[in-house]
Write a structure and sequence with these properties.
The chain has helices spanning 40-53, 72-75, 134-140, 143-155, 159-173, 191-201, 206-219, 229-244, 251-276, 353-361, 396-408, 430-439, 450-453, 457-460, 478-490, 503-508, and strands at 122-123, 283-294, 297-304, 315-319, 327-331, 342-347, 367-370, 386-392, 415-421, 443-449, 470-475, 498-501. With 511 residues, it is α/β, with parallel strands linked by helices. Helix 4 (143-155) packs across helix 9 (251-276) and helix 8 (229-244) packs antiparallel against helix 9. The chain binds 1,4-dihydronicotinamide adenine dinucleotide. Residues 280-380 form the FAD-binding FR-type domain.
Amino acid sequence: MFEARHTMDAPTTASADNGTSGGGGGGWFTPRQQPATTPDSEREAAEGSRRAAMRPTGRTSADTDGDQTAQDARQSPPPVQPASAASASPPPHPPSAARPQATDPSVPQPLSADLLVPAQRSTAPAAQPHEPSAQVRAESASPDALLIRRTMTEVAPIADKVTSYFYALLFVRHPDLRSLFPAAMDTQRDRLLRALLTAAEHIDNTDVLVAYLQNLGRGHRKYGTRAEHYPAVGECLIGALSKYAAGIWDAEMEAAWVRAYTTISQVMIDAAAADELRSPAWWYAEIVAHELRTPDVAVVTVRPDQPYPFLAGQYTSLETPWWPRIWRHYSFASAPRSDGLLTFHVKAVPAGWVSNALVHRARPGDIIRLGPPTGSMTVDHTTDSGLLCLGGGTGIAPIKALVEDVAEHGERRPVEVFYGARTDHDLYDIDTMLRLQQSHPWLSVRAVIDQQAQLQLPDAIREYGPWNEFDAYLSGPPGMIRSGVDALRNIGIPSERIRHDSVEELVTTGD
Ligand SMILES: NC(=O)C1=CN([C@@H]2O[C@H](COP(=O)(O)OP(=O)(O)OC[C@H]3O[C@@H](n4cnc5c(N)ncnc54)[C@H](O)[C@@H]3O)[C@@H](O)[C@H]2O)C=CC1
C-alpha cells in the first residue's frame, strides 16, 4: 500500500506539516506494558515521535496559517491550502434565514465490521472493494493490516466510546478545529473516524483505497481542511485506539497505525492539492424553483454560481444556510442541462435537519452550497448493454438522470425501470417517468407499489427478464439496495454489472 503515494498525481500544493498540529498536552500512547499509568514524560516522548512520524511529506511548503474550518477534521485530515487558497476558507454563508430548529438527530453508527467497507457512495465495478473470505484475507494480509484488524476487532464492541473519546481529544487538544464541525455533533460525529478506520482496514487493497481516499481528500476541500490538521487528527485517532485497545496495544501496533495513517493522509492531501488546480472547493447555488410534490417530497432546482460539471448518475453534497457545516448527499435528478440548472429530489425524513429545511423552509432565492460531484453509478457508453434500473422512493432521481443520459446519447439500448413506492401517493415522479417512456420506445417504466404488489421492489424483477444482457443500477433506501443486490445476484447478474451508491453512505447520511 505504501507505494500508493508514488502513483498519485504530482501535487503542487501539498505542504509539509508546519508544526501547528501538535497542540498541547501530553502523549496518549499507552504501551501494553504500561497501560493507563504511563508517566507523562514517556507519553510525551511517544507522542512526539508519533507526531513526527505522521507529518505528511509536503512537496512544497506553501502552507499557510489561517483558520480555515474543516468539517474535514471530522472525516479526515485536510489538504494543504496554498497561500492563494487561504481565501477559499469556509464560506460565510450568504445571508439567509438562519433560524436553527431544535431537532433530535439520530444515533451514531457503530463501527461494526459490516459498516467498515469502503465508503465511496457510488460503487462502479472498478471501484468496488474485493472482499475475499476471512481466511484468504488473513493469509494474504500484510503484517500492518493484521495489526490494524486486530485493533478493529478489539474496539468494535465499544465503538461509541472510541468515537466520543476521539472527538473529545481532538477538540480539547485542538480547540481551533472545533469550528470545522457542525454545532451539533450527532449523526455525523463519527464520520471522520469511520472514514479513517475504513481506510486503515483496507490498507492492503491499494486500488480501491487510493480511489476512495482521493475522493475523500477532494471532498474535504469544501470544509477548508488544511494539511496541518492531519497530524492532529492522527494523534487523536491513535490516542483513542490505544486507550480502548489497551489490552493488545504495543509499539508494533502503534507503528502500524502510524504508517497507515501517514499514507492515508498523504494520499488525501495530494488529491486535494491536485484538485485545487481544476475546481473550486465548493459552489454557491441559488434555489430557482421549489415544488412540493407530496407533503414531504420536494423537487428543488438550483442555479450554481459557476459551471458545475458532473455526470448523470452522480451525486453531490449539499449544505443549507440554516444548518452550517452539515452536509448531506443528494443525487442529481437530471442529466447535465444546457441551462446549467441542477435538480434534486428531497424527502423530509423524521429528525432530518437538512431534508426538512430543504422541503419545508427553502424557497426560491435562498442560497445553498454544493460540494463537488462524485459517484460512479454512471452509464458506460462504450457498450450497448441494456440498463435494468431499480429506483425506490426518491431513489428514482438518479435513475431519471440515467434515462435522460441514454436519450441524449441517442442510443437505442433497452432501459427497464422499476419504480418502487410504498403507496401510489408516494410515486411523486411517475408522470415524468411515463412521459419519458412515451418519448422513448426503448424505455419501459413499471411502478411497483408495496401495498398492491404484496412484494417489495427487488422481488418484482424476478417476474421479468431475462436480464443477462443488462447492467443493473440500484438507487433507494439501504435495505432496498441490499435486497436488490441479492436478488440480482440470485438471478445470475454478476457483481461487476451491478452498480449502486455505497450503502454505508446512504445509511449515515439519509437525513
Ligand atoms: N443514489 C441513491 O441510491 C439514492 C438513494 N436515495 C435514498 O432512497 C431512500 C428513499 O426513501 P423513501 O422515498 O422514503 O423510500 P421508501 O422507504 O418509501 O421505499 C421506496 C421503495 O423501496 C422499497 N424498500 C424499502 N425498504 C426495502 C427493503 N428493506 N427491502 C426491499 N425493498 C425495500 C420499498 O418497497 C419501496 O418500493 C432514502 O433512504 C434516500 O437516502 C435517494 C436518492 C438517491
